[in-house]
Amino acid sequence: MPAVKVLGSGREVGRAGILVESGGRGILLDYGVSFDEMDRPLFPGHVRPRDLDGVVLTHSHLDHVGAAPALFISVSPKLLATPLTLDVSRLMLYDLIKLNGPFLPFDEQTVDDMLSVAEAVGYGEEVEAGQFTVKLLYNGHIPGSAAALVEVDGRRILYTSDFNNIETKLMEPAKLKGVKTDVVIAESTYGDTNHPPRRETEERFYKAVREVVEAGGSVLVPAFSVSRGQEIMALLAEKGFEYPVWYDGMVRQVADLYAAHPSYVKDADLLRKALSEYRMVNGWSDRKKALKEPGVIIASSGTLKGGPSLYYFKRMASDPKNAVFLVSFQPPGTQGRTLLEEGVIQESQQPVKARVEWFDFSSHTDQSGVLEVLKGLNGVEKVILVHGEYDAQLALADRIKEELDVEVEIPENGATVEV
Ligand SMILES: [Zn+2]
Ligand SMILES: [Zn+2]
User: How far is the CA of 349 from the centre of ligand 1 (A)?
Assistant: First the structure.
């Protein structure tokens, strides 16, 4: 009988690492990092790379790929991911090494070695890795992302990874309806909440942006360079927003990769339109130009923890004409969170006069979304919740047990569940 060992993302959000084992061999689903208070990377539990028949990377967020190169130092297990995930992962891993190199057991060469043995897999293709069969399925989280369906010993195990089942400007809803599986390993990031309808958030955001710009101000949108930044660009392009839009940081490189893999983006033409009409910041003179005229500036990081968004913030925050619109989840301890809760940031205690607002553009599903996806599957006996805070997981487990006749487990890191 196979077993699932949770190496990371047990009762926590981040550093995913899910090992499916049978007969002493394993297939590893994701191997990511989290960051401690000092911003140093934290790894999932250890696994012996030579015991692995394969590694699946479900998407390019660092909490899913950040530790993966460590598995490719002495041996080369089979590596499976969509072509877009492989390309964006290279950028993300290089950036991780730039910021955290001394704390990592690998370098750029290891990343290149890992990617050189990778097998690019499209949605729905069946791939063998030792005794395991793997299929990647569209899961709606970010461009290139996938759920993984693993079959071993006649048992089917579906790992949703981070998923979303609503339509956004970049993604279709997850396509998991009707999938036959005995066990589901599901994310539970928003296990105890529901998001407002995306359409409403998009309209509210766009209306607010227009108000600020038409009154002569500028809007700073701190955004993650993977997916969220491009989604905001696509939203403004679709609305035909006629004022200057600047984008700064890795947003551009990732957008170029999305445009190069158009089948992984809902509307690649919209993204191309945004790329051709909006202006990329190329160095300091552009940053000054961007600040001179009313418009929108999209810049990483998404939580004001550093990067160009912090630079713009310091220059924009004291003017009441301007606005800072946060569009990502702001974890406790980040400057973005302090800004929302206390109206200042740690780094400069000067009063913030700009309009500050948060918009719920989540790429994760919510409580009702998890229930909807589970109900759409076929033959589920057991649900294993990962990638969530324990309170949210407990709330979600209660709802699942109310609505479906299945067992629910919430394993800690290091725990093994028979499947
Ligand atoms: Zn993710
Ligand atoms: Zn994640």
Answer: 32
Ligand 2 centroid to Cα of residue 203, in Å, is 27
Q: What is the DSSP string of 193-243?
A: --PPPHHHHHHHHHHHHHHHHHTT--EEEE--TTTHHHHHHHHHHHHT--S
Residue located via tokens 């004409």: 321
| Distance in Å, CA 310 to ligand 1 centroid | 23
Q: Which ligand is nearest to the CA of 163?
A: 1
What's domain 3-193+363-418's superfamily in CATH? Ribonuclease Z/Hydroxyacylglutathione hydrolase-like (3.60.15.10)
- Ligand of minimum distance to the alpha carbon of 13: 2
Q: Where in the chain is the domain with CATH 3.60.15.10?
A: 3-193+363-418
- Judge whether 158 and 377 are in contact, CB under 8 Å: yes
Query: Cα(412) to centroid of ligand 2, in Å?
Result: 16
Region(s) of the chain under CATH 3.40.50.10890: 198-358
pLDDT tens for each residue of 27-85 = 999 999 999 888 899 999 999 999 999 999 999 999 999 999 999 999 999 999 999 99
CA of 163 to the centre of ligand 1 (A): 8
The ligand placed nearest to the CA atom of residue 141 is 1
Mean pLDDT value of segment 380-397: 98
Assigned CATH class of 198-358: alpha beta
**How do residues 259-311 score in pLDDT, each as one tens digit?**
999 999 999 999 999 999 999 999 999 999 999 999 999 999 999 988 899 99
3-class DSSP state of 185: strand
Distances (CA, A) of 31 to 79, 146, 183, 400: 12, 15, 20, 27
pTM of the complete model beyond 0.90: yes
State yes or no: pLDDT of 242 exceeds 80: yes
Neighbours of ion ligand 1 (CB under 5 A): 61, 162
Ligand nearest to the CA of 18: 2
Of 363, 383, 362, the C-alpha closest to 373 is 383
> Which ligand has its closest atom nearest to the C-alpha of 227?
1
Quote the ligand 1 centre to 59 CA distance (angstroms).
7
* Distance from residue 233's CA to the centre of ligand 1 (Å): 19
